[in-house]
Amino acid sequence: MTSCSSISSTSGKGRCTSVFAIHRDILKTHILIRLDGPTLNSTTCASTLLYALCMEQKLWKNMCDSTWSSINDPLEITETVTSAFLAPQLCIDLLDRKETMPVPVKFEGENHNFLNLLEESMSLSWILIDPIRKPAANLSSLSPLSVRRYSMGEDVQLLYVTVLPGDSQVGATDPVQCRIVVTCGGEMHVREVNMQVQDMDGVNLSREDSLVILQWAMGCERRKLEKGRGQREV
């Protein structure tokens, strides 16, 4: 029986080759760049060399850019003095009323085919950041929970839901949901993106409770609810 380092590969003749025999540039540009965040973090514990390679800022930036594409867009600052923010039930609007964004899907074919295409191709990337303490919560979702025409007109609404587990420390023992609605108007431009915090029965929580839960959620584990995927831990 042969033995070798736990970080190794086996050649066709049964010989073990240490990963450290691979040039460090190849490790950085062809191997480490393919790892996700948790795996990259675990790799830092393997050796001093891998720790140094994995801690390069460019490597983590590339991983974040590919995972959360919204961080490449200009930051949208939510004013805390608006009527919507100060309302009894919190509603965070991502876009101004006169602001729109093009939908990256071309409207072709039958109506139901277009809605199916939106459901399959429209993902949501939204990172909520506290500008003072700097923690963040990832409210992104790979696919909408539902896609439907709105009010018999041309508008289409896509619903995304992120489920946050309850925690007695914030007075919410039952799970709650961050409900994000994306409204696409004529010629398929996104004209509204808003988020509200609700209980699991769909009842909006108060502004105070919503802010406490969102503050606690930044950095905490959560679950996503996605159509066709059910609930999964993240």
Outline the structure in words.
25% of the residues lie in helices and 24% in strands. With 234 residues, it is an alpha+beta fold. The strands form three sheets. Strands 3, 4, 7, 8, 9, 10, 11 and 12 form an eight-stranded antiparallel sheet that branches. The radius of gyration is 22 Å and the shape is globular. The chain starts with 7 loop residues before the first strand and ends with a strand.
State the main characteristics.
single chain, 234 residues, alpha+beta, 8-stranded antiparallel β-sheet, two-stranded antiparallel ribbon, 7 helices, disordered N terminus, disordered C terminus
Question: What is the topology?
Answer:
Elements: E1 8-10, E2 16-18, H1 24-31, H2 37-43, H3 48-54, H4 57-67, H5 83-86, E3 92-93, E4 101-102, H6 111-121, E5 127-129, E6 136-138, E7 146-149, E8 156-164, E9 176-184, E10 189-199, H7 207-217, E11 223-226, E12 230-233
Antiparallel strand pairs: 1-2, 3-10, 4-10, 5-6, 7-8, 8-9, 8-11, 9-10, 11-12
